[in-house]
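Give me the fold.
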Amino acid sequence: MKNENTSDVLAAHLAQALAAALSGMTGKEFSVAAEPGEADFRSALTTETIIWQQSLSCTPDPAVWLVAGKDAWASAGQLILGDAGVDTATDEDCRSTWLEILGQTMGGLATALTADLGHEVTASKGEEIAAEPADLAWICLEARSVADPGESPPAAGPTEIVWRLKAAWSKALMAAFERPAVEPKSALGKDNSLSKTFDLLLDVALPVNVSFGKTYLQIREVLKLNTGSIVELNRFVAEPVEVIVNDCVIARGEVVVVDGNYGVRITQLSSREDRLRFGIAETTPKIGVAVR
C-alpha cells in the first residue's frame, strides 16, 4: 500500500469502526468522517478530554490515539444511559459508557486491519492517559447523527447530533502497511492430509465459556463473601471478553443482549487452524454454554 494513502485508509477504518460502535450502542445511525485540511482542534474539544491510547498486536508500541471532549463523551453517555432507563447519569457513568464505545471501536479497527494485513491483528491493550503524546500528526473526525423523521424531538434545539474528535496513529502502524501481507495458510494444512472422516467430528458439541475476567482471593476473603459483595476482576470495562473452548481462547468480543439473553458479538478471531485444533482436542460430546 502506498504510504501517501496509508493515513487515509487508517482514518477510514477508524471512522467506520467508531460509527458502528456509536450506532450499535445509541440505537441511532451515526456517520463518522475525517475532516480535510488543518482543523482547529482546540475549538472542537473542551478541556475535559478523554485521551485514549490503544496498543495493537501488529506493533510493539502504542499505535492509535483517540481524543474526545466532554461535549462528545458526556452526550454519548447520557444518550445511551437514558435509553437504558437511567434518568440521572453522572460524569463517571458517562465516562464508563464512553470507554465501552472505545473498546468496541478498537475491536472493529483491529478487524479491519486483519483484513488489510493478511494476518490477525488484535486490540491488545487500551488505557486512558493524562496528556497527549508529542510529535503526532492529528486528524479531526466528525461524528454526525440525524434523528429519525418519526421521532418527536423537543420543540427547542436541533435534532442533529454533531461531535468532533481527533485521532492519530504511530509511524510503526503506518509502516506495517508497507510490509508484504502474510499468505494465509490452508485450514487443513499444506498437504490437505486430514482424513475424510474428519467430517464426522463436525457435529460434536463442545463446551463454550465466556470469560469476563478472573481474580484471586484468599480463603478468608472467600468466607467473607455474602449477598451484595462485589468481586473486582482483572479486566477493564472497555476490554473485550474471551470466548473459550476446551480452556483455549479462540475469539474475543463484546457483550450484547439478544431477546433478553446475554450474547457475545465476535470482534477478534484466532486463526482457523487454531480454532480447528482447539475444537477437536476434546471428542466427548457435550452441550451447554457457561459464562464465567
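The chain has two domains: 3-176, 196-291.
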